[in-house]
């Protein structure tokens, strides 16, 4: 696939050192090239990726290195991870002409403010590492909610357990996380003894971009330092200029790692809130939706209605009460968000909502089905009901 001629990347020379700092070090793939080709810009002379967002300037990786460029005067404002068309301004200096449509987007919708406007924090990440430390009790809803939001962002979640060297608690937490992650890959790591780091690297798709999310103290910075430190050790390379500050995480930025993946270091992303998780909700709770679809009454409250499959599953212990409650809670929050959004957003939301069963996570449903069948067998043996 070719990018339109006249672009700096027409003759990329992947193996030449001069492009090592260009987009190729920052996740440029044939798929990205196709994406550029699908959104041509007649004035463009090159392409780039936004590596860092400062207050007045953007740091952009272009074919011949890293450039500081001003924000575009019109159109979408770029965020870290954006792919952009570059072309000359009237004075002949390079400028950002356009931002490519994003394949994924990490955004914060401020649920408790009047506005339901989104603040986009980062774009075009492939994997979102949801960091769960073993050294504190699991807050169930947080993991589920975060996974829902990640699915909805367009990226693939990967649960990263940290501090696994704290052995006295690790096994317990790991088991619980795997259960709650419901089909999402889980990798167990320790920056302390280095275990799991290679496996983590291998879970990121080739030339993929990964970002880490997690509560304060979860071990994100330590993990990032391990990943980045390993890169520096392996290549023995000391970067200069714009990379001076890469260990002090003061700005969101992209850091190329040794295996051609890209780490999106986003210290600004802290309490990752709940976003428009319509589709994501289906992904995480498809089994619940499926059960509810079998209710005899369309407006079933899943309380005392006769033969309610949801209630039945809860009673059999097939559907955890806690999980059911977090599903209800999430539904309420989404409904509240949707009310605040404009009409177009509401329509989109309802469309997604209708599709949710279709898009539900299969592995989770089959696991649930298995448990359900087990439960049925056990119920036949006179197992006590909770309710
Ligand atoms: N035992 C052990 N401790 C760890 C490990 N990784 C991180 N820690 C410790 O956990 C604490 C928090 O780690 P950070 O990396 O600062 O956590 P963070 O997620 O970046 O925290 P914020 O910057 O507040 O968001 C530090 O005291 C680390 O030394 C690990 O693999 N094993
Ligand atoms: Zn019901």
From TrEMBL:
Monomer. Associates with 30S ribosomal subunit, binds 16S rRNA. SUPFAM superfamilies: P-loop containing nucleoside triphosphate hydrolases. It comes from the Bacteria. One of several proteins that assist in the late maturation steps of the functional core of the 30S ribosomal subunit. Helps release RbfA from mature subunits. May play a role in the assembly of ribosomal proteins into the subunit. Circularly permuted GTPase that catalyzes slow GTP hydrolysis, GTPase activity is stimulated by the 30S ribosomal subunit. One of its GO terms (cellular component) is cytoplasm. Residues 123-270 form the EngC GTPase domain. One of its GO terms (biological process) is ribosomal small subunit biogenesis. This is Small ribosomal subunit biogenesis GTPase RsgA. InterPro entries: G_CP_dom (IPR030378), P-loop_NTPase (IPR027417), Ribosome_biogen_GTPase_RsgA (IPR004881), RsgA_GTPase_dom (IPR010914). It comes from Pseudarthrobacter niigatensis. Belongs to the TRAFAC class YlqF/YawG GTPase family. RsgA subfamily. GO terms for molecular function: GTP binding; GTPase activity; metal ion binding; rRNA binding. GTP binds at residues 162-165, 214-222. Residues 114-272 form the CP-type G domain. Residues 365-376 have a biased composition (Basic and acidic residues). Its EC number is 3.6.1.-. Coiled coil: none annotated. Zn(2+) binds at residues 295, 300, 302, 308. PROSITE patterns: ENGC_GTPASE (PS50936), G_CP (PS51721). CDD domains: YjeQ_EngC.
